[in-house]
Amino acid sequence: MTFKSLGNPFSSKTDLRHGADCGCGGCVTAAVARDDRIDLTTSEGIMERAVESAIVRSVFGQSDVGRRSFMGMMGGSTMAAALASVFPLNEAKAAIMDNLGTPEKTDLNIGFVPITCATPIIMAEPLGFYSRYGLNASVIKTAGWAVARDKSLAGEYDASHMLTPMPLAMTLGAGSVAEPYIMPAVENINGQAIVLSNEHLDKRDPKMWKGMTFGVPFEYSMHNFLLRYYVAEFGLDPDVDIQIRVVPPPEMVANLRAGNLDGYLSPDPFNQRAVYEGIGFIHILTKEIWEGHPCCAFAAPLSFATELPNTYGALLKSIVDATQYASKAENRKEISEAIAPTNYLNQPVTVIEQVLTGTYADGLGEVKQVPDRIDFDPFPWQSMGVWILTQMKRWGYIEGDVDYKGVAEQVYLAADCRKVMEDLGYQAPAENYKSHMIMGKTFDPAEPAAYVDSFATKKA
Prior knowledge:
The strands form five sheets. Strands 2-1-3-11-4 form a five-stranded mixed β-sheet, sandwiched between helices. It has about 450 residues and is of the alpha/beta class. The longest helix is centred in the first third of the chain and has 18 residues, at about 45-60. It is built from 21 helices and 16 strands. The radius of gyration is 23 Å and the shape is globular. The protein starts with 8 loop residues before the first helix and ends in a 7-residue tail after the last helix. Helix 2 crosses helix 3, helix 3 (about 45-60) crosses helix 6 and helix 16 runs antiparallel to helix 17 (about 350-355).
């Protein structure tokens, strides 16, 4: 399958399921959204689209005939202009947007996979960040990422803890049905490690890893892409010289103990749990591969933001506020106790504390002091999205022409996060792009195609 520039996400979603002159409510509102006056990469644009959609529904009610006739007569591209000629559309939008406030829906289901990367999403329940913004959110433990994706696509979750590549892949239809997703906030940066079984204490050089089997939590994960990048830099082809298996994070330690895996690049606390159980050691922290790399995120269907803009805004505030709280070292022990119980991580507090505080045993006889072993920064740099897309392209997860910048900006809603951070009194970056240093090599997000071509090891 070839993936190209998506353009407006509604066009992709609608064209797959309906005809151009369908006239149903979804297609009518999608046609309004395709009006290029509306920038759906900003919170203001999303809310504007939601308001126009509501007005369309109010004008036509449940009359498919009326909608279809109007669409046939005017065409989707002139829908908003035609409405504006008979209705004070701009004034209505301004009035509604100025008075956004109370969440339209307060009872929410938010999925999470039980790892420390999900700390802000999890702790926001017991520490009261959801209720602070008028939400009654239930966080629901999920076994793995395929389940999280499928439950989100099925509408069982209003929003979800996801891996940062997932909303990009889901929007593109890579590995699943194409559905426009948004990622307005990163959950954590750093926070992963490569763990090896104690049987491989003599194999600290990755060049010695040929024939070994490694676990990652999901194909569309930073874990997979960082592991591939790391071994390729040591001259190994990850599709030929090692075997990479998808293993849900809670099953990593058991598979290492059973000898089904020689190692894994996993989220915590399962790296530290392997040390705690005496069966593995930490080979390298992923922050040593890419300092400040993203891992997990808060994501939702685009429809969640457009149909429930107040709820979306309140939820994003909850997540950003919790993420900022988690970023402070003095709060890490309190958070460790809050997320340790069975309904959350179901791990010993001491294991979680070693991860969150960065004072930990490495399994090689040393106690390390790395305060930013895991850190929390909500800003979704669009340049990070571009890098992820380059690795999806490099390893054959997407094919054909890729609109790297367009897709990253459609999914990673930096403007939304910036606005919420500033509204809450936090400092936010002024730009959406920056260069990144990965294993000593600079990634320039302005030249993604050249970056992919620069690698000697990649999918043929």
